[in-house]
Structure formats: structure tokens, C-alpha cells
Amino acid sequence: MESEQLFHRGYYRNSYNSITSASSDEELLDGAGVIMDFQTSEDDNLLDGDASIGTHYTMTNGGSINSSTHLLDLLDEPIPGVGTYDDFHTIDWVREKCKDRERHRRINSKKKESAWEMTKSLYDAWSGWLVVTLTGLASGALAGLIDIAADWMTDLKEGICLSAFWFNHEQCCWGSNETTFEERDKCPQWKTWAELIIGQAEGPGSYIMNYIMYIFWALSFAFLAVSLVKVFAPYACGSGIPEIKTILSGFIIRGYLGKWTLMIKTITLVLAVASGLSLGKEGPLVHVACCCGNIFSYLFPKYSTNEAKKREVLSAASAAGVSVAFGAPIGGVLFSLEEVSYYFPLKTLWRSFFAALVAAFVLRSINPFGNSRLVLFYVEYHTPWYLFELLPFILLGVFGGLWGAFFIRANIAWCRRRKSTKFGKYPVLEVIIVAAITAVIAFPNPYTRLNTSELIKELFTDCGPLESSSLCDYRNDMNASKIVDDIPDRPAGTGVYSAIWQLCLALIFKIIMTVFTFGIKVPSGLFIPSMAIGAIAGRIVGIAVEQLAYYHHDWFIFKEWCEVGADCITPGLYAMVGAAACLGGVTRMTVSLVVIVFELTGGLEYIVPLMAAVMTSKWVGDAFGREGIYEAHIRLNGYPFLDAKEEFTHTTLAADVMRPRRSDPPLAVLTQDNMTVEDIENLINETSYNGFPVIMSKESQRLVGFALRRDLTIAIESARKKQEGIVGSSRVCFAQHTPSLPAESPRPLKLRSILDMSPFTVTDHTPMEIVVDIFRKLGLRQCLVTHNGRLLGIITKKDILRHMAQTANQDPASIMFN
Fold it and tell me: Which end of the chain is more exposed for a tag (fewer CB within 10 A), N or C?
């Protein structure tokens, strides 16, 4: 019953005259369902009210595509509002592409008329490159700013630099002459809060004071972040990637990529990372880059007036976002292609590559980490891997797949519970509780106290002669046969064993807290926490294999390639492979993930271990469920997203899915010349459909075309205002020639120009497998079902999503538009 109510909910729609229609009679989401619980219930009700029936929309003219007349026969000037979309609509890809081709032909036909027209033609041709250049510049600059600010605020939890408060801990001690190699992070200029407040650098009092200040700053940053999100930009919370996937598939969420969202997301992302919550900034950086792309696209008419072209810019922007997040321009392009983009022509591939290049260049110029690299945890390994090591690499892939399957189920269950209980009505309280628990548990363990990116850096790093970490506390063998850059495998010291125990506790802590953190109302990425979990597991496995090889080098598996005193095993490599496996298990990325991690390490030699681990994690994860975390959140929030990766293998027909069903009332239709203005207005008022098929007559049921509710409303209102003699009894004519009427009849109203004369149709015996493919590949919103040319019913995108849920033995009402 709930799904039927959703079907009957009406919105005024855009009008257009298209070669092929893709406008659904029910394509809009219920406003409160789409809001993803970003706000409290009061905000949801406000949004729901804004999108309800009878709302007045301000619209702009988009022009006609396939009409000999200019939009409406009854008017000389175009009608404002034709050709645009409202909030929570899905765009018509076919119409937008037709509109762009018409614009391109018009510009080409005029360019030889004058120098000014030629200049406009060149500007139009280069505007695509200009907009991606601006997007890349802005994305790189904002990423550098976020990195620098997050580092400074993270260190602020522990102390402050007295000589220059804007320096972080590392920068503060750069210029000091009083640091030692063993204690390189200690210098007189840097003061902990205990030293400043109680004057003690050591002892229980100092530890307790630093503990209290750490919790204070963590809660302050978290509270400020969630407050800014709640008050100014509710869409700034979360990762943003599920929504960007949905937007790139053609859905419109007004304000999601706006200037307020960009500004608040940039500020609160710094605060959220600095608060120490188990989240990362890499996912939200994709959202930030897409906001930049969306804002800059409004400077160019080619993109501002065409939603399909705008999505090409957003695809390039998402590539730039990953490029600055990981310092991986090629990985960014592949991420956009594999993970987020719905429509990705070759031209977009080139522009995505260029945007990623520009963004990476700007970030490298800023050099936020002071290591001349684009990321904090860039590493290089010099030891080759051996065939036997594929076994532990594959085991890490199994762990990554299991972690991904567990995380997706646990996180979705928690997010669903948040939506359905009172707990979801108090987002600020939830963030404060999660931040408090995280800070209290994280401080005693040095590995959880670290910024997550710093932790990954430490786990990835190979133990060289300059490393002072407890992970590198090995007992030196003075009888080693060769001392070169590659230090030979050595027995682990007490520091390594204590570090392993701390890492095991950190692993449990990260697994539990990440489940509860992803989805709270602050910007929260999933890449870095997943990589940290994998890196911890990988480092532990790497140390175990290293010690096994040292103590049992005479075993047949080690005998051939691991000599005594040789550097055989690199634990840091295992951490890197584990990180890739866990991230692959959660997101189900494959090619793009391997390339991103390969660009992080700069070593072609390790592609095979990475591929083995990532593919294993995907296979293991797919055994428990084929959805990645982003697809799961799209489904949870009820966005109308047809996933191209999902296969439809059932043998149902269009007649099984179309509506009306046998128990439903007949389909609401218009006749081409037998209805009056009053009849159409009554039909619009009595029903809530967003479009009506037009037929020759009730008896013949022969299909003529499709008219949108909003077009009809706009056309009738305009005619009443601007044309004499249009009254309720005026005959409405959709035919080319007006039928002969009695002399005393009021003036007829011709509406043929708002009629889509070629809507997509399928027969009632068309297999649903083909219908689903048509919807996916053409971006349709609805198609009409006919039998021997007679209209039978309609199939919308929501009908297909409901049907797919039913065939998967799911209750469609529980997952659609909830």
C-alpha cells in the first residue's frame, strides 16, 4: 500500500518536445525519503512540504527539439520553465543529448557569418577544457589547504608551538638545534598541554592532563563539525560518493553540490579528521571536487543549461578528487570510470585525465606534507617478492573480503536502526558520544592515538637504519655477512612483540568504531579507515612470516630463496597488500584500486601481489553479497539507481511489470481531440501522475504520444493569460489539424507542440531483461507498453526497481524510497 501511495504522489514536470521521451509519470522520490536523514525530522518535514503537490516551480525555457512550431502554437514567445528539472527528478538523457546536438549544429551554422560568431564557436569548443582546468586547480588548492589544516589541528590536541602557533609538531622542531636522533619529535619550542598548564613534562599528573586535553579538543572539534553541518549544510555530511554515483546516473539533488555544501564540507572535514574519529578525508575530497566542478560549470552556458553535459564535468571532477586524495592521477581516472560514472564517453576520459593532472600538479606545488610527495604515506620498497609469498597475500585477500562483507552488513544494519529509532533524531548527541568513546579508548594506545594517515605511513614503512619506531626494534646480529641498504632479516625484539599486541588491540578498536562512525552527521570517508585495518593485519602477518623465515630458513619453502643474513621478507609490503585487500572488500573496486596503490608505492614489481589480494577480496566479498558499501547506501536511502553491474536474469515479460495491474483502476489517458480544458484540469486535479499517454480515442486506444503534467499545466495557464477566448469549455487538440467545430464553440486550444510524438514503447511480450537493458543504456525514466499498436500500460524506473527487489525475494516497500 505504501508503494502505491508513492506511485500516486504527483509533481509538476518539465515540458519538452523530444525525439524520444524519458519522462516518468512517477519518477520523483518522496522528499523525506531522499533526504537520507541528514537533518532532524523537522527539516525532513520542511523538505517534504517543499516538494508536495501544488508547489509552484520557477522554471526556464529549454527549447524544442522536434517541432515545426516554437514550443506552443498559442504563443509567439517561449514559455519560462520548459526544459529544466526540479529537485528529486531524474534527467532525460536522450532529450539532453538531442538538445546539445541541436545547440552544436546552431553554433556551427553561424560561425562563418562573422568574427564574433567564430569567437563564440571557439569559446564553446574550448569551454570543456576550461571548466576541467578550473576544477583541477580548485580541487588541488582545497586538498592542500585541508591537508595542512588537518595536520595542524590534529597536533593541537597534544600541544602547541610557542614560537609560531600555526606550525604543527613536525614543523615546529624543524628549525631547532636541540633535537636528538632518538627523540627527534622533542624540542623546546613544542610544549604539551601538561607542560603549559601544570608545568610537568613527565609523570602521572602530566599523563592525566594530556589525556583530559586530548578528549577536550576531540569533543570540541566533533561538536563544531556536526553543528556547522546541521545548521548550514545538511548535505555536507557523510562520504558523498553514494550520492555522486546517483547524481551521475541522472538524478538531481539540488544543493548537494552547491557553494554552501562546498564551504561547510571543507571546514568540517578538517574538524572531523582532527577530532580523531575513525574516518578519512579521501572520500569527501571527491565530493569537494565535484562541488567545484558543479559551481564552475555554471560559468559556461554549454554546461549550465544541459544536465547531461554537466555530468561529464562531474565525472572529470571525481577523477580530480581521487587524484589529490591519493596522489594517483591515473587511478583517479579509472576510479571515475569503474566506480562512479554512469555515462563516460571518450571525450570525458581525456578531460578526466587532464583534470586529474592539473589537480595533482597544484597539490605537488603546495607540498602539504613537506616530503615532495602528494600523500603522507608514499613508500618505496627495494626487496623483490617471491612466489611462496602469494599464499599470505591471498590470505590477506580473504581477510579483506570477510572484513568487507562484515562491515557492509553491520554498518547498513546500524544505519537502518538509526533511521527507524529515536536515536537518529539526535545527530549531535550521536557524534559527541562516538567522539568521546573514540578519544577515551584511543589515547592510551600509541597506534590509535596517531592520525590514521600517520598510522598507515608507519605500517607501510620498511625498517631501515634510520627508523626508531618500536615496530623496528629488532635484535641486531653482529655476524651478518653483508651490511647494505637492505638490512637482513633479524630476530624480533621486545619492542616488536609489544607493538604487535598494541596493533591487535588497535585492529579490534578500528573495526568496531568504523562500523559506528561511517554514516554519522559529519564528513566521513571510508578509504583511510579500511586501509588502516588492512595495514594493521598485513603488518602483523608480515612480521609473523619474517620471523618464520628467520627461525626456519632451512624449511623447503624458504630454502631455495631465503639465505641466512638476506633480506627476504618486507613486512611493510604485507601492510600495503592488506590495505588494498580491505579497501577492495568494502568498495569492491578492482582495477582502479590496484592502480591507486601502485601509484602510492611507485613500484611495478608489486602489481601481481596487489592483483591477487584485491581479486581474492572481491570474490570472497561477493560470496556474501555482490553490493559494495556505496551501492548498499544507495539502496538504503532509496535513490532510483539502476546499477549497471547488477545482472537481471529472470524470465518475466513487460506485461508482468507494467501498470495498471488487473486490480488497479484503468490508466489515466488523454484523447487527441475529444477533451476540453476543464476535462484536462479535472484529470490533473483528481490524479497525481506526472504524465499522461495521449490516444486517438477511448475505443481505439491507438497511441499518439505522451504529454507531461507540468507541460499541460503551464500551457493552459499561459493560454488563459495571453490568449483571448480560452475558457473551460474550449476543446483541446493534440492533432495536427483542428477538427471542425460549431460556429458558436469557444476557441480551441492547440497543444500538439508540447506532445512527445515518439515516446519509447515496447510490446507486452518484450522480455524484462531487454527492458532493463534499455532503461540502463538509454537512461530512460518510463516507457509505454503496447499490443498491436494499442496502449496497454506504462513501466517506470521505479516499477523496474520494485520488480528487481521482488525477484530477489525482498519486500520492495522496505527498500524503496523509505
Answer: N
AA identity, residue 708? L
Q: Which residue bears the cell 641486531?
A: 476
Each residue's pLDDT tens digit, 775-790: 888 888 889 999 888 8
**Neighbouring residues of 20: CB distance < 8 A, sequence distance ≥ 6:** 94, 95, 98, 756, 758, 759, 760, 778
Task: State the helix-helix crossing angle for 571-587 and 390-420, rounded to 10 degrees.
Answer: 40
Kindly state the cell numbers that stand for 402.
Answer: 570477510
Same domain, 620 and 677: no
pLDDT above 70 as % of the chain: 83
pLDDT at 82: 61
C-alpha 488/C-alpha 540 separation (Å) is 18
CATH (domain of 493) = 1.10.3080.10
Average pLDDT, the chain: 81
Condensed to tens digits (0 to 9), the pLDDT of residues 123-168 reads: 888 999 999 999 999 999 999 999 999 989 998 988 888 888 888 8
Which amino acid does the sequence have at 559?
K
CA 506 to centroid of chain Cα atoms: 28
Q: Rounded to an integer, what distance in angstroms lies between the CA atom of residue 374 and that of residue 363?
A: 7
> Is the same domain home to 599 and 525?
yes
Three-class secondary structure of residue 161 per DSSP: strand
Q: DSSP letter at 482? A: -
Distance CA 684, CA 812 (A): 28
Among residues 333, 366, 399, which one ends one of the domains? 366
Confidence of residue 208 (pLDDT cuts 50, 70, 90): very high
Range of the domain at 442: 387-476+485-633
